[in-house]
């Protein structure tokens, strides 16, 4: 059983996943950050049973292991509950990994590949702060320091919230809402 999902309409939803091993389909945590029209952020996350073994590297990175996900639903049980909310909003990810992992998990668990409208907060950050290229870059760890963001890295809910904060900060900094252009992206499997 997953926690109750947010309800309502939002400007956009940022999504992040953590994986159990090198297989991108091994999602063990999903987090979303729903951004209200007043720029408020509501964060939601749930653990996912990846139905495959955990790699020590991944457990060391995010602290999620077999004990953490014991009793959690599989991706195939959780995703259909999330789909109605996600499918009607623009989606944000920090790099294309999250979209790829969602598509891989759908394929691995026999679900249709979702067609979502994805935006990349890395691309948005590059447009807003070009001076960071070669000066720490546009990864969440560096943006956390440069933008003084408060979040716990490698937690799906927190990283989703961080991606949402990057977009909001970029829009406020540049006063250019064209940074957030609707784009239909989908990686082939």
Describe the structure.
- With 189 residues, the protein is α/β, with parallel strands linked by helices.
- It is built from seven helices and five strands, in the order E-E-E-H-H-H-E-H-E-H-H-H.
- The protein has helices spanning 56-62, 66-69, 75-86, 97-108, 121-128, 140-146, 156-174; strands at 12-19, 27-35, 41-47, 91-93, 118-120.
- Strands 3-2-1-4-5 form a five-stranded mixed β-sheet.
- Strand 2 (27-35) and strand 3 (41-47) form a beta hairpin.
- Helix 5 (121-128) packs parallel to helix 7 (156-174).
- The longest helix is centred in the C-terminal third of the chain and has 19 residues, at 156-174.
- The radius of gyration is 16 Å and the shape is globular.
Low-confidence stretches: 181-189
Number of strands: 5
Strand content: 15-25%
Q: What topology, given as strand order, has the largest sheet?
A: 3-2-1-4-5
Separation of termini? 29 Å
Principal-axis shape: globular
Topology as H/E string? EEEHHHEHEHHH
Taking the sheet with the most strands, its summary is: 5 strands, mixed
Short description:
By secondary structure, the chain is of the alpha/beta class. It contains seven helices and five strands.
How are the SSEs placed, and which strands pair?
Layout: E1 12-19, E2 27-35, E3 41-47, H1 56-62, H2 66-69, H3 75-86, E4 91-93, H4 97-108, E5 118-120, H5 121-128, H6 140-146, H7 156-174
Parallel strand pairs: 1-4, 4-5
Antiparallel strand pairs: 1-2, 2-3
């Amino acid at each position: 059983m997953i926690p109750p999902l947010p309800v309502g309409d939002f400007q956009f939803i940022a999504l992040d996943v953590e994986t159990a091993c090198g297989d991108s389909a091994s999602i063990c945590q999903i987090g979303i950050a729903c951004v209200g029209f007043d720029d408020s952020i509501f964060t939601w996350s749930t653990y996912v049973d990846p139905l495959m073994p955990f790699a020590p590297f991944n457990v060391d990175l995010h602290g999620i292991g077999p004990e953490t996900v014991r009793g959690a639903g599989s991706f195939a049980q959780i995703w259909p509950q999330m789909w109605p909310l996600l499918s009607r909003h623009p989606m944000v990810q920090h790099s294309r990994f999250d979209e790829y992992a969602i598509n891989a998990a759908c394929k691995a668990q026999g679900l249709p590949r979702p067609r979502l409208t994805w935006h990349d907060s890395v691309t948005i950050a590059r447009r807003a702060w070009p001076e960071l290229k070669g000066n720490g870059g546009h990864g969440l760890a560096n943006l956390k320091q440069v933008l003084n963001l408060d979040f716990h890295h490698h937690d799906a809910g927190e990283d989703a919230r961080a991606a949402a904060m990057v977009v909001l900060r970029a829009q406020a900094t540049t006063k250019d809402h064209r940074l957030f252009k609707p784009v239909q992206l989908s990686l082939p499997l």
